Amino acid sequence: MGLLALIASFYILWQIRQALLLLFAAIVLATALNRLARYLQKFRLKRSIAVLLSVSFLVLIFVCLFLIIVPPFAQQFQQLTQQAPQGIARLNEWIDRLETRFRDKSVSSYQISILTILSNNCDPYSTNSSAVQELLSATL
To answer: How far apart are CA 40 and CA 52, in angstroms?
Structure first.
């Protein structure tokens, strides 16, 4: 009975893990802001002004992090969108060269295209291995 209660407790905790994580983060943030406010109160500031300065400092940190992270990310994402078609074109060229290479060796079992097999409504990340089996049977 105790084991069942332990398993049920772990299951419930697993289901509410996101809320617990948010609660933990809120407690850590509140503790840090409270310590900063208490430190500022040592300089004879009122509690309300110390809390306001603490929160302003936190917002300043978030704004600085945003300004440091977002512009390079946007620039790199723009480069990715510009270079992705070139990468796809290079991949298609590589596949064409492979098909030509195997066709020139007159190996008929290799003439089946990998892209044709995978594009037949097969998800390469699924547990359904029919595309892999088809590919292996075509290459053997």
So the answer is: 10
Percent share of the chain, pLDDT over 70: 73
- Residue 33 contacts residue 56 (beta carbons within 8 Å): no
d(C-alpha 12, C-alpha 20), whole Å = 11
Neighbour-count burial of 50, counting CB atoms closer than 10 A to its CB (0-12 exposed, 13-18 middle, 19+ buried) = buried
| Other residues' Cβ atoms within 10 Å of the Cβ of residue 113 | 14
pLDDT tens for 108-119 read 444 455 556 555
Q: In terms of DSSP H, where are the helices of the chain? A: 2-15, 17-41, 47-104, 114-118, 130-139
User: How many CA within 13 A on the CB side of residue 10?
Assistant: 5
Residue 34 to residue 28: CA distance in whole angstroms: 10
